UniProtKB/TrEMBL annotation:
GO CC terms, sorted: dolichol-phosphate-mannose synthase complex; endoplasmic reticulum membrane
Assembly with partners or alone: Component of the dolichol-phosphate mannose (DPM) synthase complex.
Annotated compartments: Endoplasmic reticulum membrane
Source taxonomy: Eukaryota, Metazoa, Ecdysozoa, Arthropoda, Hexapoda
Segments traversing the membrane: 40-59
Protein name, UniProt field: Dolichol-phosphate mannosyltransferase subunit 3
Functional note: Stabilizer subunit of the dolichol-phosphate mannose (DPM) synthase complex; tethers catalytic subunit to the ER.
Keywords, comma-separated and alphabetical: Coiled coil, Endoplasmic reticulum, Membrane, Transmembrane, Transmembrane helix
Pathway: Protein modification; protein glycosylation
Amino acid sequence: MTKLFEWLAVFGVLGAVWLSLVNNKIECALIKQHPTLILFSPVIFLALFGFYAATVVLYRVFTFNNCEKAAAELQEEIQEARTELTKLGFQFKDNHD
């Protein structure tokens, strides 16, 4: 089962439950007390999911670790590659030597 099919199945079940609540097919005291809440619940859940997603992305951006050792190693490899290419006759326009 692919992830797309799993998500479609979940949304299909949630949509069917929501539609049955909106059309009064399921008897529930919550529906009679708060019909507007049931009606707008997909929009509310979508807004909450967007807030959650933005929070997770911002948290991970702010706590992103710098890899100083890996950056230094990469710079060394770049210098080695430039040296090897220069030996082979390649000329760089912006020579950093």
